[in-house]
Structure formats: structure tokens, C-alpha cells
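The following record pairs a protein chain with its ligand, pyridoxal-5'-phosphate.
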Amino acid sequence: MPDVIPLEEIRRAAGRVEPFLARTPLLPTDGGAWLKLELLQPTGSFKVRGFFAAALALPEERRRRGLMTVSAGNAALACAHVARRLGVPCRVVMPDGAPAPKVEGVRRLGGTPLLVSREELLAWLADRSWEGEPETFIHPFADPAVQAGHGGIGLEIVEQLPEVERVVVAVGGGGLIAGIGAALEQLRPSVEVVGVQSDGYPLWPRTFAEGRPPALTPSTIADGTTAPYDAAMHGRLAACVDRWVTVPEPRLRAAVGELAVRSRVVAEGAGALPAAALEQLPPGPVTVAVISGGNIDPGLLARLLAEAHRPHGRHPAS
Ligand SMILES: Cc1ncc(COP(=O)(O)O)c(C=O)c1O
């Protein structure tokens, strides 16, 4: 178990974030699986768990200097929300191609987006440029305090559904599944942890199948899962993910519409990935799919709902 976050740390993180966050419901579906509705958290994704956990673990003096992260989406919103709740400033380095609603969302939450080109962003990260900034930098997935916060999802699942046998999770940088996996490994080692990506960016399934990270350009509606390969996460994911599933992009597009219509759950692409993966898993085990986020562009949602109702299952490009 390399680098596994101790259960006690996950429990402490859960205690720290409790005053600020919801215990999200587990929704039973007609198909028999359960949906863990993390999209109901403030800012519409699980990310606030990790950012609250990390920010509240900081010494007061470092927290007061403010928070900083790098993200095109949900981590940016979560960082701004957490900073506002804690009464400290926040700046987020964002690629200049980030969706306008996410950039606006950061501003609305009182944060300051710093828009840079993708090349500048990668160089900023590679040079650890945050070390020269006044705020405290919180890494969106590699920070163990962030992962400990996400581990709270694992604790809740075991409490809410003690008979759970399988948990299915979307993977980007890997912080979400590393946290949930750490909790389950220590509380319920027999639970199977399933990692999911789209075939529009199958970075981790191919890395593990081929022994090295492939060069890929993302082409998926699951934009939350398109983080670049990070060697620091490789060992952790190798240890905690029992099975990988790659979802064909047309099945993912259909799953967004199916979740909305059948379960009344409006998920973004990354959030719907685990639901879309269920059809590829052997039936039987008591299964939870973590629906991690709901920040979908309204125009894309409208197109996916229209596709869901089109006969012959045609799926035009977005
Ligand atoms: C909605 C959603 N699901 C899943 C993920 C993947 O999380 P991680 O990068 O920790 O693997 C993200 C990451 O941004 C996300 O926004």
C-alpha cells in the first residue's frame, strides 16, 4: 500500500469539513446500483471536500495569506468558495480556454482568475512558480490533504450502505479515487474500486495497459477527467484501483441524458462517467457510482437531451 492516507487522517478531515458541507444522499436506481450524489455539494462538485480539508488543516497564519490553485473548472470554483467561506483571498491560475461560465463563477465567488495560455500554465506548474506567490497553493489532486478530504466520500458510503461491494469513480488527476480508495482499502478491503475514463481521453487505462503514459489530446465531454499524466499519482492509482473501465464517448453522451430523464440527476460529463460504466461491469455486486459533478454547459445539456430522444441513436459531434 504505497503512500496510503491513514484512515485516522481521513476521519480527521471529515470532522473538519463537516460544518461546511452536506452529507450527500445515496439514490437507488431502477437498475439496482446506487448513485452517490456529490454533485449536490456547494459549487456543484465533490471538490469542496478536498479544498475545505486542506485549507482547514493549514496553520492560521498560512490560511490568512489566502489560497491559490490551478484549474480549468471545478477545483477553481471549489477553491474560490472555500476561500470566501473562510474569509481569505483566492487567486486561480486558469487556462485562457477555460469555459466562460467557470471563469465567471470564480469571479462571482470573489476569487481572481489569472488567465494564461496552456503553455504558460504547464510551465508555471513545472517551475513550481506558486512557491514565489503570497498565497498558499493547494494542488487540485496530488495534495494528500485534498485526498484525505475526498476520502470522506468512502467513509459515508460505508456508513450509508454497509453491504457495499463495488464503488465506481471517474478519474482525472486521480485525487478523488485515491481518497475514496484509501478509505475503502482500510475500512473494507474487499470492496472493488473501479476507475473510469472516456475513450476520448483514456490516459490511465492505457498507461497501465501499455506500461507508460500515451500522448493524448482530449476529445471528451468529461472535461473534469482530462488532467495531464502526473508521475506522482502513478503508484497510488496502481495500488488502489482494482479495475479500469473505458467508456465509449457516445455511451457517455447518452448517459448524461439517461441520468437526467430516468433519475432526475443532471450530471456533467465527468460526473456521468461511472453511471455509463455500469453496463460494462459483471452484474451482481452491490454497486455505488459516484456522481462527482453537475457543472454542465446548458447548451451541451440541451444537445445531449435532444440526442437522447432522437431515433436510431445518432450522435452528432458536439
Ligand atoms: C466532476 C469531476 N469528476 C471527477 C474528476 C476527477 O477528479 P481527480 O482529478 O481528482 O481524479 C473531476 C476533476 O476535476 C471533476 O471535476
